[in-house]
Specification:
Elements: H1 2-15, H2 29-41, H3 55-70, E1 75-84, E2 87-98, E3 102-111, H4 124-141, E4 148-155, H5 163-171, H6 174-179, E5 180-186, E6 194-200, H7 220-229, E7 249-250, H8 257-261, E8 266-272, E9 297-298, E10 303-304, H9 324-330, H10 334-351
Parallel strand pairs: 3-4, 3-5, 5-8, 6-7
Antiparallel strand pairs: 1-2, 2-4, 6-8, 9-10
Length: 355
């Protein structure tokens, strides 16, 4: 049943809109994004789960590089090492640039590793969706000259310490840092109940930067994406203020953090649900109110019926629910819609960044 639902969704996207019995329109960027998501995250159709440090993570890196090179991009494979549990580990980032009218750079990034495979996760929403959207954007914009240079960054080893984004940020000299105009982090952009956009936290201590004086929490990139999103099928939202986090601000738990520490204005897009009182409060770590993902959900309190015994907490990331076949049953059409809107959003932003 699950594979049937997924196959139907793939077929619907690939068929497109027929203009006659013999001709069909080329797939849109949004349709391509979903196909790339299938190829990356579905075990039945492509690579599947990509645990950090695994052979599947390495295969995913090669898959990304092959696509970018096939579209004419010069791809930098940036290997790096990091230490985890006392052992030295290896991974790599894939970096490609589209030269613009200005040498100022807008960096858009997404991590391609996943976690939760032992629970059945295939890393579709976290973070196959972000990778798929940025690949579709790179394909749609190839050969164009945009206002600013665009750097597509696909980060490895995010799930066990933001290692890829930290490695790339550390590799930049003062001249390269000065060229960075903005960083947009696409991490879990589809799957949850609401798609949000955040800026960095107004309290620098939340980010534990090595040089706090360089830190930026300028919300201009967030605000520009928010404005543009009103033209898409799924406008972005700003999360309400909650304990420790003012409205629209986020912590340092994803790949935007090293760049905020460099003084670069960031925006972070994710699909979750900040209205839920989750295991640790209103922190966005419960992605949905769908009762199938709760032992017992109480709509009145926006929380578990019994907070002491709840085990699921509405979580998609890192769980057995983070796979396309399951998502198609739980939320028919949601991943496709959110992925489409965020692909469209990024194309619009890069063409008219307004920064």
């Amino acid at each position: 049943m699950k594979h049937t639902a997924l196959a139907f969704a793939i077929t619907a996207l690939l068929v497109g809109c027929n203009t006659s019995t013999n001709d069909s329109q080329a797939p849109t960027a949004a349709e391509q994004a979903y196909e790339y998501l299938v190829q990356l995250s579905s075990t039945a159709e492509g690579i599947g789960a990509r645990p950090t440090g695994s052979e599947a993570e390495t295969r995913a890196a090669a898959w990304i590089q092959d696509h970018l090179a096939g579209w004419g991009y010069e791809v930098q494979n940036q290997p790096f090492t990091y230490t985890k549990s006392g052992a030295s580990k290896r991974s790599q980032n894939l970096i490609a640039e589209l030269k613009g009218q200005s040498d100022k750079v807008i960096l858009i990034g997404a991590h391609y590793d996943s976690t939760g495979d032992k629970k059945g996760s295939e890393g579709a929403t976290d973070n196959g969706a972000g990778v798929a959207a940025l690949l579709a954007v790179a394909e749609a914009l190839k050969g164009q000259t945009l206002p600013y240079t665009v750097r597509f960054a696909f980060f490895g080893a995010e799930e066990n310490g933001l290692n890829g984004s930290r490695a790339h940020a550390t590799s930049l000299d003062s001249t390269a840092i000065a060229r960075l105009l903005a960083m947009v982090n696409y991490d879990t952009i589809a799957g949850g109940d609401v798609v949000y956009v955040h800026s960095a936290h107004s309290d620098v201590t939340e980010y534990n930067c090595a040089e706090p004086g360089r830190y930026s929490f300028d919300p201009k990139v967030r605000d520009r994406l928010l404005a543009i999103s009103k033209l898409t099928a799924t406008p972005l939202a700003i999360h309400p203020s909650y304990a420790g986090y003012p409205a629209g601000e986020t912590g340092s738990w994803s790949d935007h953090a090293p760049f905020a520490c460099l003084g670069v204005p960031i925006a972070y897009v994710e699909a979750t649900n900040f209205t839920i009182n989750g295991a640790d409060g209103y922190d966005g770590y419960s992605q949905t109110t769908n009762p199938a993902l709760w032992d017992c959900y109480d709509d009145a309190s926006k929380s578990a019926c019994d907070r002491g015994s709840e085990t699921q907490w509405g979580k998609i990331w890192h769980t057995q629910y983070d796979r396309l076949d399951t998502m198609a049953e739980l939320f028919p059409g949601r991943v496709e819609q959110q992925l489409s809107a965020n692909t469209d959003l990024m194309i619009r932003f890069l063409k008219e960044p307004g920064l």
